[in-house]
User: Fold these one by one.
Assistant:
Number 1:
Amino acid sequence: MAPSAADIAALDRAYVFHPFTALKEHERSGGPMIVRGSGITLEDSEGRTYLDGMAGLWCVNVGYGRPEIAEAIHRQALTLPYYHGFSSMSTDTPALLAERIVRAAPKGMAKVFFGNSGSDANDTQVKLVWYYNIARGKPNKRKIISRARGYHGVTLASASLTGLEGLHKGFGLPLDFVRHTRAPHRLWEAEPGMSDADLVASLAADLEAMILAEGPETVGAFIAEPIQGAGGVIVPPKGYFPAIREVLTRHDVLLIADEVICGFGRLGTMFGCEALDIEPDLITIAKGITSAYVPLSGCIVSQRVWDTIADAGERNGPFGHGYTYSAHPLAAAAALANLDVIENDRLLEAAATRGAEMRAALADSFGGHPLVGEVRGMGMVAAVELVAARTPATPFPPALKVAPRVAKAALARGVITRALPSSDTLAFSPPFVATSGEIAEIVGRVREALDAVADELARERALPRAS
Ligand code: PLP
């Protein structure tokens, strides 16, 4: 007899070690078990439905249930499920995919090294920076500067790059080759009334001071997401990346653009680099490359970095890095089908248009709310940051868990949003195929959730200035 939904839920609580989960609480009470999806709607094992306002983890960009991708995976599994790329062996779909990625990438990009997750791709980036600098006779250029609130993954190197305390606590991280500079977060980093130009100048000056204090001969790279995702959907002030690039170029420091969320349309452009005027040396991709139908990531490497690494290979022998699943033919087939869907259905335009609608609806619904400090975003990604008081901006005591409570109240109303870990911020990052009606539903139900939590806080007398 097939196990019932309740039996399977019990197995989950008993045997699955969940990522980013309150472990004991999950053992006690579990959570929704998602069993199917179509468009932007998910269904759980109890038959409840949810509008997925987060595209999974910012990744199911073309929506659930696309037959084009499922069929491409099926065909590839029957033809050739797997062969590797070590020792000059090749398969066809990664070759087709790499050319397509390089063609779409910012100028100067030359090669793609494939991996399986954003985290392992950022680990690879660190190794590429080290290999490149050793090859150039600058072996001490090993430090990587990242930013507070940056999210770059959870492996040893990428968790260290991540600028969120929760990923370090309990693990003895970050490792000592990482430094963190300020996030370009206007709400908390700008003086009252500060112009964009002054904020940019102050952030660039701080970065340069850090490089000089560490010694430029010890700093190899700077890593940044175009828009910081998990750290708060932080849109940098105008002119930020050109100013940062100038500092990096002056001190011979590489720029890694972590496009794991922004790449493949999230900002309404193929890459976030286009939208934010970034000139990278290395680019990290994952998530949207396959819309998460199967795991795939990559490091896009510029011609300049490639030339140095390939020349060093003449002395060092074969490049000593790679995964069993690097350049996996089935993942590449899924990615090719996903890129076809994005192109054929004009989903970059959809992300730009629906995204603008979403941001306008959020600003309209939340902008004047006394518990909202800022509504921000770009393309099809946005955030509502909640504060105890607006002027001056005052955070809630973390113990109140305000954003998680709102996300929970939204879930109970059939909408998935995400409470981000570093402050009380709700994120919105739906699939690009969301309709105007679905966007309105998401915004409306989250507003109801916020009102319900605000009432609760007022009853608990937890707020200095509750509405
Ligand atoms: N980089 C960024 C910008 C991300 O948002 C993430 C995941 O959310 C990662 C890297 C890590 O990717 P993964 O979870 O696939 O290891």
Number 2:
Amino acid sequence: MTITAIRGFNDILPGESALWRHIEDEAVKVFSACGFSEIRVPVADRTELFLRSIGETTDIVEKEMYTFTDRHGDSLTLRPEGTAPVVRAYVEHKLYTSPVTKLFYAGPMFRYERPQKGRYRQFYQIGAEVLGDESPRADAETIGMLVELFRRLDVSGITLHINSLGCAECRPGYKSRLKIFLQGVKERLCENCQRRMDANPLRALDCKSPKCIEATENAPRITEHLCQPCNVHFERVKHGLAGLNIAPNINPRMVRGLDYYSKTTFEITAEESLGSQNAIAAGGRYDGLVSDLGGPATPCFGFAIGMERLAIVIKDKGFQERPLAAFIALGAAAEKKGIELLKLWRGAGLRITEDFSEAPLKKRMKRVDQIGASFAVILGEDEIKEGVVSLKDLKTAEQEKVKWENVVQRVFKVK
Ligand code: HAM
């Protein structure tokens, strides 16, 4: 009997992984250029970290965490997201001695959700966090950096949704108003929202149940209950985005599924390629989290991109991996010369593998076609004498002689 992968946990196979590598490479380039440095945090942390940061009455904590007790009796959780572990590391290693710390990370996250297109139980995020910057310009510029990454990846047809969730000053007042409203429509809410209504009324606005969406249609809007500083902050974020030529959609219902947010929150959706799971990136400000986790008061802003969803969007628009060539040496002299030539071509950026089989040439051509090479680069005794290779385009079956120094250029010419 064969053993299959766990439901909701995916293998990323060659072809797909080339696109992932491309996304990650572009992200690292864009983020590094903006002054972010990489942080690598463990895939598991103490369960308490997620309870205290994400919030006990969120879906993630109530229903979705992979929590287990290790042999020592400690409760550990596979990270459902990256912000809490990054903040834990920031506090633990006292990174706050620098006025501003800009970090990025990439890796798998784990949530026990119902798997469907764009939603998995192990999924990958690339995230970025700015710790120590209270300026609304940090919000706008960080969103701008993300939009720039999407532009470089040729992602179009996306919408930026933004909201402000207020702060410790104005949110309690809003919550009370919302609670009163929810009391009035209680019977129309799903069981979950009825249960959480008192402890965490905002969750009702995030609930995906059609019943709750309808019942809360006329709920008070948080953007109409912001205090003066939150209002000014939100206006300046919008102004900053306008300066970057980014036109957001203001969505006062967007409360996000994690409790640590304050002020600005946002999501970027790509409706065309994705079904209901259409957020390809999301984030916001979390000014209280560092102090909640034992560090000094530190304003922060960040986001995470969902790799699988972004890959679906880019693949839909057509992504081509760099072409692969396959070298076929005919005879001992060609094998020897090949060592030198392969080094030269690989050094110049060509992806080229070598076929080591000793079968007749026709069979070898078939093999290299089957491994997915676009070109066969053949070297025999005649070619050595002339300083050329016979280069066969395996798609068109056209064959031509190409000088050794022109092979890379010739292969790259073909898309
Ligand atoms: P989040 O909205 O929970 O935020 O996740 C961010 C992104 O991860 C989503 O927009 C989506 O693209 C992807 N994602 C989430 N769950 C799944 C899943 N089950 N399968 C596939 N993709 C998924 C956070 O995680 C915050 N830590 C973001 C943040 C960073 N806020 C501030 N800093």
